[in-house]
Amino acid sequence: MSAVPVIRVDAVSRWFGSVVAVSDVSFDVMPGITGLLGPNGAGKTTLLRMMTGLAATSAGTVTVFGESVRDNTPLYKRIGVMSEHETVYGFMKGREFVRMMGKLRGVENLDAAVDKAIALVDLADAQHRSMQTYSRGMRQRMRLAGTLVHDPEVLILDEPLNGADPRQRLHFKHLLLQLAAEGRTIVISSHILEEVEELADNVLLIVNGKLAASGGFRAIRAALNQRPYHVRVICDAPRKLAGAVVNLPSVDAVHVDPDGGIIVLSRNVLDLQVELPRLAQKESVSLRRVEPLDDSLESVFGYLVEN
Amino acid sequence: MGSVYLLSLRQLAGRWRLSIMTVLAAMPVVIAILMLGNGTAPSVAQFETAVLSAMLSGSIAPLVVLAIAAAAFGNEVEDRTLANLTLSPVPRWQIALPKLLATITVAGPFIAISAFVTAYVAFLGDPRAAIAVTVSAVVAVAMYASAFVWLGLVSTQAIGIGLLYIVLWEGFFSGFVSGVRLLSIRHYSIALMHAMDARRFALADQPGTAAAIVLSSVVIGGFLFLTIRKLRAMDVP
After folding, report:
1. Do A73 and B10 touch (CB under 8 A)?
2. Which spans in chain A are helix H?
3. Cβ-defined contact of A54 to B91 (cutoff 8 Å)
4. With the C-alpha atoms ordered A147, A153, A154, A159, is the resulting torsion angle positive or negative?
5. Which of A218, A259, B66, B72 has its Cβ near the most Cβ atoms within 10 Å?
6. Partners of A8 in the beta sheet?
7. 3-class secondary-structure state, position A171
8. Could you give the CA distance from residue A300 to residue A165 in angstroms, rounded to a whole number?
9. Cα distance from A81 to chain B (closest Cα, Å)?
10. Nearest by CB: B91 against A55, A73, A106
11. Is A44 exposed, middle or buried (0-12, 13-18, 19+ CB in 10 A)?
């Protein structure tokens, strides 16, 4: 991995009148896939628009490959951007659209590049149809082909999975992983957190216009050590185990579930992992399943938003 | 540049717009025929004031151009496809200029045919007068197009603002307040028409021919420059 960041966001703020959309955000993006997460209205799209040069910053700088991205049109030969808006030119056929995008971006050997981009999004069969007749997912994929046609080194994708069905999502994930493996830098925003979790090497969590956390998913988890974890324990004697577990130093509270399990609240889940099996053995309780209830990005994200 | 031009042509040549333009462009021709058929044919000065200046250059041409030009950027701002163009590695003038040319390409023929036929009928087949009227009308189209393309980029209310401008500035003030003529596209156009056929049209112009040529160029170039500058500075939705 290169030590020089591909994208550098340095103390960036953006306000609209008295409304602060993004406040003093700084981070670096390296090659690989970076997920940008946050609730609606958190400032993700504003931040992405500043990263692409579509919007100006009120303060701070955004550089891509060391150059300011704002009003730097030659840089767009190296960047592919897919905005969240799904509008397409309804009067165009899919291939026409990708071809126009390639021509605008100065692609040489245009027909081959168009063929390749359309094949990447698996829409060769529909390329000669009017985009007006496409489903939402197909439009998104053809827009992605238009974004990929000039073979950009940096991809910035705002909610690209909108409207995609499960098969398309799977295809999209494989495609992004393939593009990242080729050395590209990809920034993807999404509200489908599980998929970002599967895709992204790094995660940027934006809450109320501020960078709430950044780093690998596990690093973010480590940074949230103070957060209580909920762990569901399924066993053959839940009330007996609950009575014993509540005395463990790593446990804050225990709740007996109506369905027979117990929910343990712990701020030190590492100790709990060690202590729980020992305790069960000591109490002659048979553990059937131990599972974290909130180990997804969704729960981490919810916690950050609430706090 | 060709891609933006072709894209813009397809965007602007919608069926409803062409229908409106056809109806508007036919009006001066119909009026000319009615005036001549009335028995009491108007003088050249009367015809020029009522039909060529007030109607063709001051109303029909700007209305037709407004219907087209306001959409040149306006529709892309509204449906948020403008980013497809602004995220391409081309200088902004290569986006603004094709948009202007596409607007002139779509609106120009309607006004040119309307102007030529109107003048040809009114001046009983005099080709020189018809050509003078046609060329001046096409120059007016270029000026209005440059102004309204810019307007469509800077305001989501371009049609409303454009209509106010046409009615109040070009239609009312420039007809009654002599100083306003120095800042009126309609009067630049008429001054050019006079210069091209001084034999038929009066020469008591305000502005004069030289000023009209310079000011026409300033309007076309100035608004194109403002459009390019706006494209560079704006937040693209």
Report:
1. no
2. 44-52, 94-104, 110-120, 136-148, 166-181, 193-199, 217-223, 238-245, 269-282, 297-306
3. no
4. positive
5. B72
6. A28, A63
7. helix
8. 26
9. 8
10. A73
11. buried
Omega before A31 cis (within 30°)?
no
Confidence band of A304 (pLDDT split at 50, 70, 90)? low
- Determine contact, residues B192/B213, Cβ cutoff 8 Å: yes
Using the beta-carbon criterion (under 8 Å), do A83 and B91 form an inter-chain contact? no
B145 or B40: which leads in pLDDT: B145
Provide the angle, in degrees to the nearest 10, between the axes of the packed helices B61-79 and B2-12: 110
Distance CA B46, CA B116 (A): 18
- Backbone φ and ψ for A86, nearest 5 degrees, come out as -100, 5
For chain B, report the end-to-end CA distance as a whole number of angstroms: 22
**Tens digit of each residue's pLDDT (9 = 90 or more) over B160-200:** 999 999 999 988 888 777 777 788 899 899 889 888 887 77
Pairwise CA distance, residues B125 & B130, whole Å = 8
Instruction: Residue A85: list chain B partners with CB under 8 A.
Output: 79-81, 83
Give the pLDDT confidence of A219-276 residue by residue, as tens digits: 665 666 566 778 889 988 899 999 999 988 889 899 988 877 899 998 787 788 888 9
Nearest Cα residue in chain A from B235: A55
Residue with tokens 């197009």: B145
DSSP state of A228: P
Report whether A140 contacts A172 (CB < 8 A).
no
| Closest chain A residue by Cα to residue B94 | A104
Report residue B52 as tokens: 């060529």
Of B79, B89, B236, the CB nearest to A105: B89
Residue type, A147: T
For residue B232 the two structure tokens come to 């560079």
> Are the beta carbons of B81 and A49 separated by less than 8 Å?
no
